[in-house]
Amino acid sequence: MTSLRPAALSALLQPDPARKAEQALALSQDMAVDAALALPVPPGIPGRPAAPVLVPHQQLKPRPVHTLQGRATLLHALAHIEFNAINLACDVLWRFTGLPEAFYRDWARVAREEALHFQLLSAHLQGLGFAYGMFPAHNGLWEMAEKTQDDVLARLALVPRTLEARGLDAAPPIRAKLIAAGDARAGEILDIILRDEVGHVAIGNHWYGWLCGQRGLEPVATYAELAQRYRAPRLRGPFNLTARRAAGFSEAELAALQGGVAAASASLQ
Questions:
Q1: Residue 137 φ/ψ, nearest 5 degrees
Q2: Whose CB has fewer CB within 10 Å in the chain, the N or C terminal residue?
Q3: Would you place residue 269 in the very low, low, confident or very high pLDDT band (cuts 50, 70, 90)?
Q4: Which residues contact 11 (CB under 8 A, 6 or more apart)?
Q5: Residue 45 lies in a domain
């Protein structure tokens, strides 16, 4: 049996979305972990299909969700996020060496759950007469992964704890829109995604805190420095504080988050 980290790299390189999801689901807890194995960086990271066409996020215009086309566009955007999330979990698994075995086991779980999310959204899109790849998408999640490829601490700070944590805030209002549009199945899928994403962000928080401890760094100040260094997007409220607390954000972090938004708002007045 292939060990976990090479298998994750194989899934990352897979361009076909359905097969990528299947390979991610096969990242079993029974696989051996060789934390010291240094894998050479291959070409073609990440594997992705020819469609969807990737464009700057400013070019993506929202459409009314009460129309079938608008609802499909929103569901497609969610599917694209989950497709990228598979890649992100697989990339963390193969790229970074020398971490505890539990670190790799945790991210294998994330990869499996992101693959399930993609399958659920893809199947729902197909049931509506659409398919993943039919609408343009942006590449923001993966761009941050590229920026942080040389430092696992920066990766954890700015992908699961920043970009993916935004999903905790966004999921409830998106769910409400889809339910109001009469799409009960989409609401059920969003419930699954939010439940699992709390766990994924919690994994990011746990290992970020562990690494800060290993390096003798203060987590809140270190996060602010990393966000500035890597030009992370400024986070805007409202925040899902209940979900963020469940995902392991400390009260000091939540206060800093809300204080940063208040300061930004004051500067615009």
A1: -150, 170
A2: C
A3: very low
A4: 20, 23, 24, 26, 27, 86, 90, 111
A5: no
Global pTM? 0.95
If one counts every other C-beta atom within 10 angstroms of the C-beta of residue 266, the result is 8
The CB-side HSE value for 97 (13 A sphere, CA atoms) comes to 8
pLDDT band (50, 70, 90) for residue 58: confident
Residue 170 has pLDDT above 90, yes or no: yes
* 54 φ/ψ angles, rounded to the nearest 5 degrees: -95, 130
Token digits of residue 219: 């987590």
Bridge partners for 137 per DSSP: 54
Please report which confidence band the pLDDT of residue 264 belongs to, taking 50, 70 and 90 as the band edges. very low
- CB 214 within 8 Å of CB 244: no
- The CATH code of the domain that includes 223 is 1.20.1260
194, 172 contact by CB (below 8 A): yes
Q: How many helices (H) and strands (E) does the chain have?
A: 11, 0
Q: With beta carbons less than 8 A apart as the criterion, state whether 160 and 200 touch.
A: yes
What domain range includes position 111?
Answer: 4-31+61-267
Query: In this structure, what token pair is assigned to residue 165?
Result: 């944590």
Contacts of residue 130, defined as CB under 8 A and 6 or more positions apart, other chains included, come to: 72, 75, 76
Amino acid identity for residue 115 in this structure: A
Q: Over pLDDT 90: what percentage of the chain?
A: 89
pLDDT confidence bin for 237, thresholds 50/70/90: confident
- Best CA proximity match to 256, nearest among 230, 215, 222: 222
Which residue do the tokens 């970009």 mark? 163
Domain count, the chain: 1
148 CA to centre of own chain: 14
